[in-house]
């Protein structure tokens, strides 16, 4: 549910004090547990350590994040991929194809460097 416009955005008071008392370049990582706080325009450029229940996820705040909640940028659950043996085989084939493509590109680049341009 959206917050009333007359109330304004919710930003944790402690977090706002930390942000206002520092400069983005010299602040380092500002650790916070206030996942419900909204990103304010004053936070742009800071690196925030947002707690996800286990550790602090480092997030560099950009202009596109303003108005969103801090918790959106630090997921609390780790995704484990789906699939079993078949999925693993497909991933291995894709990885082998990627390695082969990288090796052929490297060989083509080194071949182009060894040949001298013909001319007067």
UniProtKB/TrEMBL annotation:
GO terms for biological process: ribosomal small subunit assembly; translation. PANTHER family: RIBOSOMAL PROTEIN S19P FAMILY MEMBER, SMALL RIBOSOMAL SUBUNIT PROTEIN US19M. Residues 101-110 have a biased composition (Low complexity). Belongs to the universal ribosomal protein uS19 family. One of its GO terms (molecular function) is rRNA binding. Gene3D superfamilies: 30s Ribosomal Protein S19, Chain A. SUPFAM superfamilies: Ribosomal protein S19 (SSF54570). Protein S19 forms a complex with S13 that binds strongly to the 16S ribosomal RNA. The gene is rpsS. This is Small ribosomal subunit protein uS19. It comes from Candidatus Kaiserbacteria bacterium RIFCSPHIGHO2_02_FULL_56_30. Residues 101-120 are annotated as: Disordered. Keywords: Ribonucleoprotein, Ribosomal protein, RNA-binding, rRNA-binding. One of its GO terms (cellular component) is cytoplasm. It comes from the Bacteria.
